[in-house]
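Before drawing any conclusions, I looked closely at one protein's amino acid sequence and its backbone structure tokens, quoted below without any editing.
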Amino acid sequence: MVTRRLTRMSETTAPQHRHAPDWLILTIACVAQFMVVLDVSIVNVALPHMGTDLGMNQTQVLWIVNAYVLTFAGFLLLGGRLADLYGRRKIYIIGVVAFTLASIVAGASHSGTEMIIARAVQGIGGAILSPATLTVIITTYQGPRMAKAIGAWSAVAGAGGAVGVLAGGLLTGLVSWRWVFYVNVPFGIVATIAAVLYLQEKRNQSAENKLDYTGAVLVTGGLSAFIYAVVNTTTHAWGSATTLGWMAGGIVALIAFLFWEAKVASHPILVFRLFHSRPLSVANIVMLMAGGAFYALWYFLTFYFQEVLGYGPVHAGFSFLPMAVCIIGGAQFSSRLVPKIGVRPLVWSGTIVATVGFYLLSLLGVHSSYWSAILLPGCLCSLAMGLLFAPLATAATSKVDRKDSGLASGVLNASRQVGGSLALAILGTIAADRTAAVLRGAMNPAAIMNQAHVDGYSRGFEIAAAITLAAFFVSLAMPDKVGHHSSHAAPSPESAGATGH
């Protein structure tokens, strides 16, 4: 969708003299994208401290992540059309300002409710800003220079994910967890000033002024209600009227979303003809499952490091660094191999390696050593995450019309975000239930608190391993020769570089 829209935009906009060199325009785009991706990963290490200061338990803390991910995923495809309709400069500035202001509110939050609302607004700001940064690049560069510019954009996004885990630990340990949000402010100010001074307006003059707000609200609301029902099972039984009511409401909203997109919406954010492509359908299912399982890696290890092993946030941040490097290495390795060996071997390898890594993590104990029991399986899971990005993006775009390639990659990115929200809610709730069950059966709960937490994390990792194994069996349906010497071998921009958790 983004590629199609931006192609039309570049064709219908008359050439304009730019008052800034291309490298500065690229920098403007990359700074904002770095900020969006950084915010996903930088929060992880700070979660235990946020929960303590804001009076949130481990299950409620899930919403600090989910509020951002849900609104980002729900409004991503809608946000992608805004620059097309209203101009890249205007939408870029709106996205940066919204994201920065929400970051200030999140950093200043004094309750869980304030934090969750701020994070939801951040997600909407990110959904507006991230596609706008890509619009800036594609309306500035042409031909081989565009490919290089997108490569730089993707590399910066990957660096944001890697830097975030370390920066989150350093800021939380040396200053305060609030600075994992305040750090966005200088980036936002610089990006806004640079855009005002140097970024010229370009928009698609022929675009119809229609946006599918109803679809975005239905899918975001439906997912939120369903996840709320799952998370609340720690206080309301699965069969209670509260749980069933929220779950039913979520399901009804999601069914209404599907009906709206298929039958009513004149400009739907989800185009069902895409799913006539078997590679795209398989890639999205695998991404939904495997991408969701990977979110659990960072979440459970964050609490394991700090609550069980007693690591400080700085120590925890450095502990994640090798895993972040493995994500980047795996992504670079697989992007070079896709044209040579195709998609299937890499997807199969990635899901199997992930399954092994999650299974090994499920064997963790209260006194496990980082070097002997955590580093290797954590790096296996992270390497697998990197291995899967390029082949799944290739599969999602290789058999669709060129005009739909951006939409296809945007749907893949949304699948990863939605999978992450669902997995965090389900696995986090199951882990909390397991911990509570162990404590209920103990004579002295305080004496076995750490063991109870580890039992919960182990259960979560076991299910994550089962999910990635199921993703492997789904990937067996991937057609042969997808990606061999394909012009789509590199990840499409909307899904490239999304290595943050």
